[in-house]
Every structure is written in C-alpha cells, then in structure tokens.
Design brief:
The chain is of the alpha/beta class and 364 residues long. It has one domain: Rossmann fold (3-Layer(aba) Sandwich). It is built from 15 helices and five strands. It has a five-stranded parallel beta sheet, sandwiched between helices. Strand 4, helix 11 and strand 5 form a beta-alpha-beta unit. The protein is globular, with a radius of gyration of 20 Å. Bound molecules: thiamine diphosphate. The site of thiamine diphosphate has 17 residues, from loops.
C-alpha cells in the first residue's frame, strides 16, 4: 500500500519484501493442518476483505497521526505494526445479523470496531469529542452495542470479566454467540484479568481472550517473572489455547476461527497469545521514548515483518492481481478520507453543550 513519509515509521518507508520472510509467511499458513484448512477454505473475497481491514486500520491511524501533527488533537493511541493481531481474529467472528458475536476491544484494537461495522467517522468523532460521537463526547474510548462492540473503559484488564459476563449471558439465554476480547501483555498483571479468565475457564464460557503481546506496556518491558511465559498460561488456567504470529493476519484468523468453533461447540474459552511488536510509542506523544527502550535492530527486524506488506506479497503469489489490491486500497482510502471530513464537520457544528454535562451520567 501507499507509504506516508510524514506518518509511517521509517522502517515502512523503505520496506520491500524480504524473500525469506515471504517464505516464512507461506510456511506458517501451511504449518498446522487445522489452521491451514481454515485458511484454505477462504475465498478471494474473504481474503481481500481481510486486506481491506488491515489497510483501513492503518489508514485510520494515519488519519489520526495527521491530526496530531496539524494540531487537531493532542495525541492518539495507535496500533502500527500490530494490526493483524486484531484484524485476523475479528474476521473469525459472525459480524452481522441478529445473532452477531460481540467484541470488547481496547483503544488500540480500533480495527475490531471498523470490522464490526462501526463507521470510520464515528471512530474519529470519538477522538474529537463531538456530541454525535458514540460516547456523546464523554469519552475517547468508544464502542457501539448495536454493532456488537462493547465500549472499553480506560482501566486496563476490566474488559476480560466484562467479556466473561457477556459470554455467560449468551449461554444463559441459549444464544449461539461468542464474545472476544484483547488485552495487552502488561495488563495481564491486573487482578481483573485473572478473575475474568478464571471465571470463563471454570464456567467453560463461549469466549476468546487474546493476549496482545506487543512486548511493551507504556514505558516498560513487561516481565512475566515467576508466572512463566504466556505460552504456559492456557495450561495454567486449564483452557485451550496457543499462540499465533501477530504479524500474520491469516494465522490470527485461523487460530481464532478454531477457538470460535470450539466456543460454539460448548467447549469453552480459548486463551490465545499474539506475538507482535508495536512500531511506535504508547501513544503519539512518546514515540521517541519507545525507540530508547528497544534498540534499532529490534525495530528493523519487526519492521521487515510489516503485516500489510507481507500479506500483499502472499496474496500476489496466490494469484491475486496487484490491481485488485489497489482497487481495495483506493476504496478504503476514500472511506477514511470521507470519514475524517465528516467527523471534522461534526466538530464545527456539533460539540457537546455544557448544560448537558450530567445527561446520561449514572445516578445524576
Ligand atoms: C488499571 C489501570 N492501571 C494503569 C493504567 C494506565 N495504563 C494505561 S495503558 C497502560 C499500559 C498497558 O500496556 P499493555 O497492557 O501492554 O497494552 P499496550 O498499551 O502495550 O497495548 C497503563 C499502565 C490504566 N489505564 N488502568
């Protein structure tokens, strides 16, 4: 896809497909027979829908970065380099219809909101705090229950018990639906995470919990210490699980598809670990600090594994014409540009009015 000199990490500006990594990507598709079967069942439209999801996620972040640079907003929480860990799994869900599944993303999983059908304009209105944003300008964390997106709260970890509760309600009502959430590697240290995953495990709830292991939490490298590596956590909780390549949209899709199928079959929660790396700061304000925590070689190594570029290379090898991908990219770019313009119009005409400050506040 098009690169943006002012906004992309430097690793992407000069990105070209490394043949060894393209081979690794292909090998990963076929490495596990169950995952391979799930991937090989996808048709061209589904493969391209996932490509559109990656591009949409990336361009949404580019739009936000543009707004930070031109002073429209003060900062943004981006997922540059981590998009596949969100887009692959969300595509394994039932994303429309009366019995659609539910996601509980964190702010960095904006791609999950897009793919569940939330308009880009609404996502961007969330950042602008407009009265017509999904939170009515109350919170930058946005969701849309109508689209199956539970709005996150800022407190990390808390969406795991919420997800378990949603999954419990599905089971109690006899609904064939699954709840999925993501949690950062750092946030797994919260009591809420343990409580939520333990409850989901004991109750064998129809849920998928994804540890988004981007190897950083604010300005720290998380340490698992005495608890042991994430790969051991599913066994520790007595649930199904495993890891997937968080820069490989198809591996993420397949791992999640098998987990969703298990959940629908009554086999309970799955704990997945997405191994990835964020090519930026915690938010746009500390990108320089992030590059002081990990050395340039680490950034260069992960930069070569750009989830968008590697997927494009694989699609091309699969016989999907570059022109088809360019069409998809152009359509998504137009959607994001239109969404940004729409959101800016809301900012001109529809900011919250002071007198409404207590509206919608519990017990106001
Ligand atoms: C309960 C709680 N403690 C602290 C914070 C402040 N905080 C926000 S994000 C964050 C780090 C999260 O790191 P991680 O879970 O690894 O996710 P990432 O940001 O890397 O995606 C912290 C400590 C918070 N929001 N909630």
């Amino acid at each position: 896809m098009k690169r943006f000199a002012a906004y992309d990490p430097p690793e992407y500006l000069s990105w070209t497909a490394d043949p060894a990594l393209v081979r690794d990507f292909r090998a990963r598709v076929d490495a596990d027979p169950e995952r391979a079967a799930a991937i090989r069942a996808l048709g061209e439209e589904e493969l391209l829908a996932m490509y559109a999801g990656l591009v949409r996620n990336r361009l949404h972040d580019v739009a936000l970065k543009r707004w930070v640079k031109n002073g429209t907003i003060s900062k943004a929480w981006l997922g540059t380099g981590e998009e596949a860990a969100t887009i692959g799994p969300v595509h394994a869900l039932r994303r429309s219809g009366p019995d659609h599944d539910v996601v509980a993303p964190m702010i960095r999983n904006a791609g999950a909101c897009h793919e569940m059908g939330m308009p880009i304009a609404d996502m961007l209105r969330g950042y602008l705090g407009t009265a017509d944003s999904p939170s009515f300008g109350r919170d930058g964390h946005v969701g849309s229950v109508r689209h199956g997106v539970i709005p996150p709260i800022s407190h990390v970890g808390d969406m795991v018990p919420v997800t378990a509760g949603v999954a419990l309600s599905f089971r109690q009502r006899g609904e064939d639906r699954v709840a999925m959430t993501w949690i950062g590697d750092g946030s797994t240290k919260s009591a809420a995470f343990h409580e939520g995953i333990n409850f989901a495990a004991v109750q064998r709830l129809p849920a998928v919990v994804i540890i988004h292991d981007n190897q950083i939490a604010l300005g720290s490298r998380p340490e698992t210490g005495g608890i042991g590596p994430f790969s051991e956590w599913p066994r520790m909780y007595g649930v199904a699980g495993g890891s997937f390549d968080g820069n490989h949209v198809l591996d993420g899709y397949a791992a999640a598809k098998l987990a969703v199928d298990r959940a629908r079959a009554g086999e309970g929660v799955t704990l997945l670990v997405a191994e990835t790396f964020r090519l930026g700061g915690h938010a746009t304000h500390d990108e320089r600090e992030a590059r002081m925590i990990y050395d340039a070689d680490t950034f260069a190594r992960w930069g070569k594994r750009d989830p968008v570029g590697l997927y494009e290379a694989w699609l091309e090898e699969e016989g999907i014409a570059r022109a088809r991908m360019e069409e998809v990219e152009a359509a998504v770019a137009a959607e994001v540009d239109a969404g940004a313009e729409e959101a800016l119009r809301s900012r001109e005409a529809n900011m919250p009015v002071g007198a409404t400050v207590t509206d919608g506040v519990y017990a106001a």
